[in-house]
């Protein structure tokens, strides 16, 4: 093989390591067998480099390729879905590395590495991943530079990485021009035609006992909220989501039977304005504080005050809302009364007897509601993430036997009891609370804040929120779960809530977590959230708001065409070697003589030039000899120092031809 086409062993060692790091973020979503196969291929490649007698012959490559193909079609029979394609790409990258012998093979591996880095953004666009990809781009570029060197070295030169980093930094101005001027679509480019719903969590449009308690164990962010004023207290942070009307005694679902109508209600409190950044979700509803008043243009308010929107599935969405925290919803329609009084067939006699007792002791519906809340508060009910399994009648078993459950147990059983009592009621799901991040002055609402509560219709207040969970565990409204305590996972043990972090390590971990989230929030708002509307606002500020998409594309091309030569010129100026001050002074001395007709020849040394000058101009003998002697000492001799340089500089300045 031609030596100029050979790959240095050090480059192959580092290429194997970088290839593993390039694919590493995909390990969490790939099948474990695919991950192990990929690592095995890299390990085999590393062994063939470490043991020179081992060769990756055609037979070995063919066998590994066949095994990889069989594994791919075993795990993903039809190669359907994004994960299957990523698995195929990862194994192809590893197999190409196995046969990497020439520079052409190396370039193919590096280009596949760049392409693999792009695929990470199909699943995640967090700022930490962006930083990781930025480092990997520098590493791949450094390997490309190192492999392109004509001189052979045994090791990997760090200046290749420095040069690669400088190339990436030099490309940033062009990247910014393309980012701000590239015509935007209604959603991110990486989301077009790609199904990102796999693995995403969130509330569904129905609940069964245990559904929300399974979701509650996730620390994933559901949405973030920026308030135009101070955030409301935790007891008023009820984020309304799907409203559930129908039940078969076990499962609660939404309804489509309500007809659209003009929704009016009486506001009893000042408006609260805020902006919500909703994380990607397969659902089409928005969350708002009770009750929403001013909606974003793309949203629709349903008769039960749930908000839906078009074209928001599986992408991050930011919207503005205004809500009223105190309200009167007005009269009840006939259809709402029918839906709110439906009872399942599994209502037991002891449930009816309990409600009859409350009714006999009450003079109004509100007083009966208070009796029910007192029942939950005074009886031995426990709020737990791990309730015992329920049978065919979960409400009856929960109320009279286990008395251990989560918010969906309390909300659904309370709503069933109210319907038995003749009070229209429904279950509302959403989120409650949220963590205030002081580093960004915004609210973080996580999946662990998922909640369910009940609404009852009362003559004097309309639809009224009643949270039976707060009667059993009022700390649920003010505090979050302590995920670090294993007791929360023991069957039937009451939930332990977080208290003030006393340990220095916990405080540091919390501040670090909030700092990372604040950075992500800013990244989402200003970079990932740079939408078509925001681009139009920016162009209007620049006086370019009238540009169409075509003109904007032409402006982007023109700006890039002007910027690239300008950058090349600036880089060339910066790369020019500045002459030594001693050489610069001597050149100044020579220019004075040149103006008097005594030109120094390119081949002429300082002594020969001085002798010729003295022959032509004997009157300049003393200064010419002094300048020449100082220059030779500084340029060719060992004598050097600030005093000698200063004296030489003064001689040149005083010289007059």
TrEMBL record:
The keyword Transmembrane helix applies. This is DUF3488 domain-containing protein. Residues 399-470 form the Transglutaminase-like domain. The chain crosses the membrane at residues 12-28, 34-52, 59-76, 105-123, 129-148, 160-182, 542-571. Keywords: Membrane, Transmembrane, Transmembrane helix. The lineage of its organism: Bacteria, Pseudomonadati, Pseudomonadota, Gammaproteobacteria, Chromatiales.
């Amino acid at each position: 093989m031609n030596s100029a086409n050979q790959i240095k062993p050090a480059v192959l060692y580092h290429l194997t390591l970088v290839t593993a790091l390039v694919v590493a973020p995909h390990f969490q979503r790939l099948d474990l067998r695919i991950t192990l196969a990929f690592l095995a291929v890299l390990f085999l490649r590393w062994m063939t480099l470490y043991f020179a007698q081992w060769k990756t012959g055609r037979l070995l490559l063919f066998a590994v390729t066949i095994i990889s193909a069989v594994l791919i079609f075993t795990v993903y029979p039809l190669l359907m879905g994004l994960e299957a394609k990523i698995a195929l790409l990862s194994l192809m990258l590893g197999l190409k590395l196995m046969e990497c012998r020439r520079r052409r093979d190396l370039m193919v591996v590096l280009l596949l590495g760049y392409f693999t880095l792009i695929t990470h953004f199909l699943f995640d666009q967090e700022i930490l991943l962006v930083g990781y990809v930025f480092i990997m781009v520098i590493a791949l570029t450094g390997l490309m530079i190192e492999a392109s060197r004509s001189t052979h070295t045994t090791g990997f030169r760090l200046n290749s990485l420095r040069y690669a980093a400088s190339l990436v930094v030099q490309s940033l101005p062009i990247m910014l021009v393309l980012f701000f001027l590239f015509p935007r679509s209604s959603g991110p480019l990486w989301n077009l035609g790609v199904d990102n719903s796999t693995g995403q969590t969130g509330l569904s449009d129905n609940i069964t006992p245990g559904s929300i308690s399974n979701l509650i164990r996730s620390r994933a962010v559901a949405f973030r909220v920026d308030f135009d004023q101070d955030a409301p207290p935790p007891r008023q942070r009820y984020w309304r989501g799907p409203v559930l009307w129908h039940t078969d005694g076990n499962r609660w679902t939404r309804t489509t039977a309500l007809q659209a109508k003009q929704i009016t209600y009486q506001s009893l409190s000042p408006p609260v304005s805020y902006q919500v950044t909703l994380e990607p979700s397969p659902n089409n509803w928005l969350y708002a504080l009770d009750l929403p008043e001013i909606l974003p243009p793309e949203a629709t308010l349903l008769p039960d005050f749930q908000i839906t929107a078009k074209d928001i599935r599986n992408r991050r969405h930011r919207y503005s809302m205004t809500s009223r925290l105190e309200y009167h919803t007005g009269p009840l329609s006939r259809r709402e009364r029918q839906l709110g009084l439906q009872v399942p067939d599994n209502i037991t006699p002891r449930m009816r007897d309990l409600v009859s007792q409350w009714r006999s002791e009450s003079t109004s519906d509100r007083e009966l509601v208070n009796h029910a809340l007192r029942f939950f508060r005074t009886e031995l009910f426990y709020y737990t993430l791990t309730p015992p399994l329920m049978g065919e009648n979960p409400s009856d078993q929960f109320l009279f036997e286990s008395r251990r459950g989560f918010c969906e147990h309390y909300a659904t059983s309370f709503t069933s009891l109210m319907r038995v009592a003749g009070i229209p009621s429904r279950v509302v799901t959403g989120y409650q609370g949220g963590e205030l991040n002081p580093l960004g002055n915004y609210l973080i609402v996580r999946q662990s804040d998922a909640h369910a509560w009940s609404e009852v219709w009362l003559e004097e207040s309309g639809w009224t929120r009643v949270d039976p969970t707060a009667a059993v565990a009022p700390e649920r409204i003010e505090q979050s779960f302590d995920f670090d305590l294993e007791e929360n996972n023991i069957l039937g043990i009451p939930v332990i809530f977080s208290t003030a972090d006393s340990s220095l390590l916990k405080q540091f971990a919390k501040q670090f977590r909030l700092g990372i989230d604040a950075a992500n929030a800013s990244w989402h708002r200003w970079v990932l959230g740079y939408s078509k509307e925001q681009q139009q606002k920016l162009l209007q500020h620049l006086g370019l708001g009238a540009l169409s998409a075509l003109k904007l594309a032409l402006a982007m091309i023109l700006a890039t065409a002007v910027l690239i030569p300008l950058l090349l010129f600036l880089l060339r100026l910066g790369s020019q070697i500045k002459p030594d001050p001693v050489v610069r002074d001597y050149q100044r001395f020579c220019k004075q003589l040149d103006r008097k007709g005594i030109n120094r020849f390119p081949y002429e040394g300082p002594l020969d030039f001085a002798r010729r000058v003295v022959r032509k101009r004997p009157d300049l003998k003393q200064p010419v000899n002094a300048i020449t002697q100082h220059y030779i000492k500084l340029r060719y001799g060992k004598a050097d120092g600030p005093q000698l340089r200063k004296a030489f500089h003064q001689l040149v300045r005083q010289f007059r031809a």
